[in-house]
Specification:
This protein is an alpha/beta fold. It has 27 helices and 26 strands. The chain has a seven-stranded mixed beta sheet with strand order 19-20-18-17-22-25-26. Strands 1-3-4-5-6 form a five-stranded mixed beta barrel. The chain binds adenosine-5'-diphosphate.
Length: 768
């Protein structure tokens, strides 16, 4: 059959398919017009290559479709739109270029009879419907427009034909389908395409879902953030964002490990998500601020010039030779060995003896930042290690706060009054301190509030204490003890002249020309206005004079320079504040002077003994501690064992009670060193022999009357001298201690060494 031919670009019209296509090529338009004049039939066939403008036979596929033209429509720009319906599958056998249009000879392909059993057909039908259904699930559009119609078709050839028409595949696949001769071949091609497209569709929708999910999440976050922003703006705290930015910038600039920074960032994120101005937000903000001000890895350069350090120590302090020596040794070793983790220095001594000020000098000498952490009265572990943030008003502990205050990770930290920490039910303060001081553990010290490990291993710790007795043993073992003793009056005089006056004058804006002191005045201040082991009170009194003088200079411009004499002191400081318990004028029975040592210095104490008829009981009053009471018992037992010697009747002790009292009953007293004093008192009261008033004694007594050594001799002797005592009995075993003391202390005192109770008695009783 001869028929006009229209070559198509990228379109395949299948039998039974109603489709539009546009034409612009003149030959095609002419072919259609020719067809309209004949029987409206054209042969539609796809070009193998779309770019060919004037195709010949070899440029076209051989199999095409004979179609009937239903409608022609003229479009702008010379385009003709054709509505055509595919009729039969046909093969192009020959093509002639017929002047102005293509004409070919086409041969309609006969349907191929195949042997497919009805059961087989049914199975194929169902399988195809299933496949269509599956595909519909991944292609919503297909399901809505085609699936339903297709699923209602009940014959296999019809289903195959319709599916191919409606299935969205590219033209070359359609062409392939068109070239298939048998139903079976078409079926398997379609099933294959369906399966493939379903797979692709599934994967695609998977991907799409994920993308969507992510998009949704981002969008949600964005919306929420915008909402928060609006809420914040409404509430008037829209500066929170700039605050967060500021926090983040500070975090980046922080000198800290990545671990720390990451933790801070996390907290900032948490903070951002919190409603502002609520309690939790405030807690979080304070926490972040605290973290940002901690000196994590920020170190200050250190100066270790031992010579310079020595100069500074000497310039700041009078005396204290041994102390300075040991500190310099310590610093030298620390530097020389390169081991900055060594033991910790602990300065032990009475108040006002310059412990704090020595530490400050050390910091100055090493060019280190100085922070003071006061441990006095700390009995809660949380004060050292901080409270957990769940507590309202939680704060970092004192150590962390100290580090924050220092601002660098290698300061000198003074642990003041380490002897005054105590442990109670609220946790073990001692072990918290141990963790701070232990070089093994303090690399990662964790404050409960901060919750991040801090490195304390670069800190130079110096501790101070008034006494070693109350420092927990494990702590004591970690520290190198340096003792600072009380000052003598002469030392105090030097300290006043060389340091305190200058300091106080400067503090009050006075010059050396304006105000000076005579030595006599200073001595009197020391002796009659202060009573202390250190020089704190002395400094205060000098300060008082400076203040009053400053006022005078301010109110009276013509004021002449002041030189403070002994006689001026009454005007500046009032009447004398200190009265010493001077030695009694007269020897007495049952009254003996002992010498005591307390953490604030030495003192004399008067032991009184009275005997009364009774049943052999012993009464002890004046707040004596257990050790002291036992010491009195031991003394009494000794006396009973030697009663014969002193002509005491055998039944004396059954018929008398003994009462020992130590005045100033409100002050607790303890320790064994009043042993020989109480024993002498008892014996004097029993034998009615007088004890010398100008004599004092100290020493522990044993059951057999031996005299054992005691501590704190320097302070005790100073106290004795101040009280006007002339002779002091000291245990023989303390002889080396006395030898170490400067002659300023021992001058004017007769020191007698005793090792047995009878030597004590011999010296103490005024007549044998
Ligand atoms: P502590 O810490 O032992 O209680 P401080 O260090 O506070 O005593 O000393 C009190 C005051 O006495 C400070 O002003 C200190 O400078 C001064 N001071 C103490 N000892 C000396 C000394 N040896 N030389 C100079 N000043 C001293």
């Amino acid at each position: 059959m001869k028929i006009p031919v229209v070559p198509l670009k990228g379109i395949v019209i299948l039998p039974r398919m109603l489709a539009h296509f546009d034409m612009i090529r003149e030959k095609s338009i002419a072919a259609v017009q020719e067809a309209m004049m004949r029987d409206q039939k054209v042969f539609l066939v796809m070009q193998r290559d779309e770019t060919v403008e004037d195709p010949g036979l070899s440029d076209l596929y051989t199999i095409g479709t004979v179609a009937e033209i239903k409608q022609l429509m003229r479009m702008p720009d010379g385009v003709i739109r054709v509505l055509a319906e595919g009729r039969d599958r046909a093969e192009l056998l020959y093509l002639a270029d017929n002047m102005n249009f293509l004409e070919g000879e086409a041969h309609i392909c006969p349907a191929v009879e195949e042997e497919i059993s009805p059961v087989e057909r049914e199975a194929m039908l169902r399988a195809m419907k299933d496949a269509i259904h599956d595909y519909g699930e991944v292609n919503q559009h297909f399901m809505e427009t085609a699936s339903r119609t297709l699923l209602m078709i009940n014959t296999l050839p019809e289903l195959i034909a319709q599916l191919m028409i409606r299935f969205p595949v590219d033209a070359h696949k359609r062409q392939k389908f068109l070239s298939m001769e048998t139903l079976n071949m078409q079926y398997s091609l379609l099933m294959q395409v369906l399966a493939q497209e379903t797979d692709i569709g599934r994967i695609r929708s998977d991907i799409q879902e994920k993308v969507q999910e992510r998009l949704n999440k981002n969008q949600r976050e964005y919306m929420l953030r915008e909402q928060i922003k609006t809420i914040r703006e409404e509430l008037g705290d829209d500066d929170i964002d700039s605050e967060i930015d500021e926090f983040l910038a500070q975090t980046e600039a922080l000198e800290a490990s990545e671990e720390i920074k990451e933790a801070i960032r996390k907290e900032i994120k948490r903070f951002r998500s919190m409603p502002p101005a609520n309690a939790e937000g405030t807690v979080s903000r304070t926490y972040i601020e605290n973290l940002l001000t901690m000196p994590w890895d920020k170190a200050a350069p250190e100066n270790v010039d031992i010579k310079a350090a020595e100069k500074i120590l000497n310039a700041d302090h009078y005396g204290l030779e041994k102390v300075k020596e040991r500190i310099l040794d310590y610093l030298a070793v620390r530097e020389y060995s390169g081991n900055h983790e060594g033991s910790i220095l602990c300065l032990v001594g009475p108040p006002g003896t310059g412990k704090t000020s020595v530490a400050i000098s050390v910091a100055r000498a090493l060019n280190k930042k100085y922070v003071r952490v006061c441990l006095g009265g700390v009995h809660d572990e949380a004060e050292i290690r901080g409270h957990r943030r769940t507590y309202i008003g939680a704060m970092p502990g004192r150590i962390a706060a100290g580090m924050k205050q220092a601002g660098v990770c290698n300061p000198l930290m003074l642990l003041d009054e380490i002897d005054k920490v105590s442990s109670d039910y609220k946790g073990d303060t001692g072990s918290a301190l141990l963790e701070v001081l232990d070089p093994e553990q303090n690399k990662r010290f964790t404050d409960h509030y901060i919750e991040l490990p801090m490195d304390l291993s670069h800190v130079l710790f110096i501790a101070t204490a008034n006494t070693m007795q109350t420092i927990p043993r494990p702590l004591l073992d970690r520290m190198e003890i340096i003792e600072i003793g009380s000052y003598t009056e002469n030392e105090k005089l030097h300290i006043a002249k060389e340091h305190l006056i200058r300091k106080q004058r400067k503090k009050n804006g006075l010059t050396g020309k304006q105000l000076s002191f005579t030595e006599g005045a200073l001595k009197k201040i020391i002796h009659s206005y202060t009573r202390e082991a250190g020089v704190r009170q002395l400094e205060r009194e000098i300060g008082e004079i400076c203040r009053k003088a400053a006022r005078k200079f301010l109110t009276d411009e013509g004021m002449k320079p002041l030189r403070i004499k002994e006689s001026d002191l009454k005007e500046y400081l009032g009447i004398e504040k200190v009265h010493y318990d001077m030695a009694a004028e007269q020897d007495d029975v049952g009254i003996v002077r002992g010498l005591a040592w307390t953490s604030v210095g030495g003192d004399t104490l008067e032991v009184e003994v009275n005997i009364m008829p009774g049943k052999g009981k012993i009464h002890l009053t004046g707040q004596m501690g257990d050790v002291m009471k036992e010491s009195a018992q031991a003394g009494l037992s000794y006396i009973r064992s030697v009663a014969d010697q002193y002509h005491v009747a055998g039944d004396y002790f059954e018929e008398h009670d003994i009462h020992i009292h130590i005045p100033e009953g409100a002050v607790p007293k303890d320790g064994p060193s009043a042993g020989i004093t109480m024993t002498t008192g008892m014996l004097s009261a029993i034998t009615l022999k007088k004890v010398r008033a100008d004599l004092a004694m100290t020493g522990e007594v044993t059951l057999r009357g031996r005299v054992l050594p005691i501590g704190g001799l320097k302070e005790k002797l100073l106290a004795a001298k101040q009280a006007g005592i002339r002779q002091v009995l000291v245990p023989e075993k303390n002889r080396p201690d006395v030898a170490e003391l400067s002659s300023e202390i021992t001058d004017g005192l007769r020191i007698t060494y005793v090792s047995q109770m009878d030597e004590v008695i011999e010296n103490a009783f005024s007549e044998a």
